[in-house]
Amino acid sequence: MAGIYIHIPFCKKACTYCDFHFSTTFEKYRVALVKSLCVELVARKDTLANQSISTIYFGGGTPSLLTEEELTLILSTVRDNFAVQEEVEVTLEANPDDIDLSKVNVWVKAGVNRLSIGLQSFHSDSLIWMNRAHTVAQSVACIPIAQQAGIQDISIDLIYGLPNMSNEVWREEIRTALQLGVQHISAYCLTVEPNTVLSAWVKKEKIQPASNELQNEHFTILQEELLTAGFEHYEISNFALPNFISKHNSSYWKGAIYLGVGPSAHSYDGKYRSWNVANNQRYIQGIENKQPEFDFELLTKENQFNELLLTGLRAKWGVSLVQLGAILPLDKSFLQQLEHLEKKGWVVCKENTLYLTQEGKSWADKIAQDLFA
């Protein structure tokens, strides 16, 4: 089984924290870009010739800005050129201000059966600070609208660790989300990424980022609230009710192969990683000239070992020491570091599979780095 990721680099506004590839001036070339996406899908169909497609994911950017014709064209191109499973999971990332009943009905008709909604916050001050295009009222209203249209698998994004965000405010954010009856919550700690507005603010000392201590307190509150509500913490940033784990994102953490199309999109075939140019005009020109612009790398044994370790540890399925050892021998240094982490109570090993403990989840990246080849 394999997945297809489709990158839609359209956005109304630039969020202060975002370092994804997007454009707010896309109207003059949106037709050409959507056409190029479809041409790329056809051109690369042989890369998944022996695979059945179990997931299709529209990410961005803001895929909810696609018109009915654009969305239908892209999904039709996928279905015409790939072996798509009948029960395929089709996820569309959407912003609350794009959600109304007629539009969601269009998405459902086209084949979308899962929404990932970028709410981020239920507080006006936070939304304004993040330069989001939607209001709190739209955040609250969009969930029942999607449910009314028949979407029964709804994920929302929340951000914690904002400057001056108190524990009480964060707890209130989570409880508001739970009251809306969503099935999946992705919660991310605010990160200062290079070349963002947020990064410039920090450099100019206009804001003081939240301390690591406060971020960890928010993470603990997140786990407490969602586990109590019956959600499973199946990946560091992701929580789901039973039977609502994201199939597409889980495939990344399990090392499944996938095809990524669109500017900046990444692909993985088990041996190679490739990524398209992160420039819309150059992407379109490359497709039109039949000389697509992309880079790729052959994963070394060390790369394979480290990626399996990093992604496996983040998820509930853990990482198999047998699989790691089949890539590279588990040397004395690795085993000593593993013993040290077990004594600290950050990891546990059961039946040759390594898992993070509840405490260890707060230190996932550091633990992986300590064990890297």
Structure notes:
The protein is of the alpha/beta class and 373 residues long. The chain is built from 14 helices and 15 strands. It has helices spanning 30-43, 68-81, 101-110, 124-130, 136-148, 167-179, 197-203, 212-228, 247-253, 280-288, 301-314, 321-327, 332-344, 364-371; strands at 2-8, 52-60, 83-94, 114-120, 154-160, 184-189, 232-235, 238-240, 258-261, 266-268, 272-276, 294-298, 319-320, 347-350, 353-356. The chain is globular.
CATH architecture of the largest domain, by name, is: Alpha-Beta Barrel
Strand order of the largest sheet: 7-8-6-5-4-3-2-1-9
Q: Which residues sit in consecutive blocks of at least 5 with pLDDT less than 50?
A: none
Oligomer: single chain
Largest sheet: 9 strands, mixed
Question: Based on CA inertia axes, which overall geometry fits?
Answer: globular
Rg from alpha-carbon coordinates: 21 Å
Q: At the fourth CATH level, what is the homologous superfamily of the largest domain?
A: Aldolase class I
Structural class: alpha/beta
Distance between the termini: 29 Å
- Beta-strand share of residues: 15-25%
Write the SSE topology.
Elements lengths: L1 E7 L21 H14 L8 E9 L7 H14 L1 E12 L6 H10 L3 E7 L3 H7 L5 H13 L5 E7 L6 H13 L4 E6 L7 H7 L8 H17 L3 E4 L2 E3 L6 H7 L4 E4 L4 E3 L3 E5 L3 H9 L5 E5 L2 H14 L4 E2 H7 L4 H13 L2 E4 L2 E4 L7 H8 L2
